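Appendix B, Record 12. Input sequence as logged:
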Amino acid sequence: MPTLPDSATALRAATNRFIAMVRDVDESQLASIVPATPDWTVRQAISHVALGAAYYADCLAGRDQWVDSPTQTAEKNTALLEIRRGVPVPTALADMAGAVDEVIDLLAALGDEPVGFHARQLLTPQGIQSMLVNEVLVHGHDVAQALRRPWKIPDDEAILALQAMTALCAAWLDPVKSAGHTASYQIRLRGRYEDIWLVFRSGKLSVGSDSPQKRADCVVYGPPSSLLLVMTGRLSPMGAFLRLKSVSWGRKPWLGLTLSRRFRSI
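Logged structural output:
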């Protein structure tokens, strides 16, 4: 099984790539709409990523609080963007780099102690950093699409993001779209990474790296980078299949087409 990078190393690497990609964006490009998040311009998307790092640092340092419910995340994002409206992009990027350093330092001081997160969940320090990696990777993809610039999502960084996301999946279930659902999913990641099992029973979800079941109802296979984009709604499951980026099989392979829709946006 491949060795994954330390989450702090992955976070710094993703942050540095993001800053390098957007450092020279001009005013006309900043006004462009981001296709994946059409309510945001490129300027707002960049600000959101930069603010995410600052917000994590503030919560970890006790200067702010995580939201109590997944339904409050959009409201919190809007409030943070309003507070930082008009901040020049170079300033936002410099603040982001400093905030990432602060997050890493604060978490290093905690050792392996679980840390509070959104929706009253607990994550390891590695998980917290990996959630921030997820933010940078996914929104970096969004901004790159809007700017028509290349954006690399390394598989070893994507697997960290996927592991952190799936640890939170149960709290982010959409109660309407998952109601009564019973099925097992085995997410097999290309590259011999550890499998992720999502097992639904009457709308309740358990998550792990193993399952008492010998066979899943639906096996979803693909590179971590592609599956990250599928799970965050950036790439449709059918689009991933047609581009040979993922494939599903098992007793109910069609379930792979709707898995990501059973969750709210994280």
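DSSP finds nine helices and nine strands in the chain.
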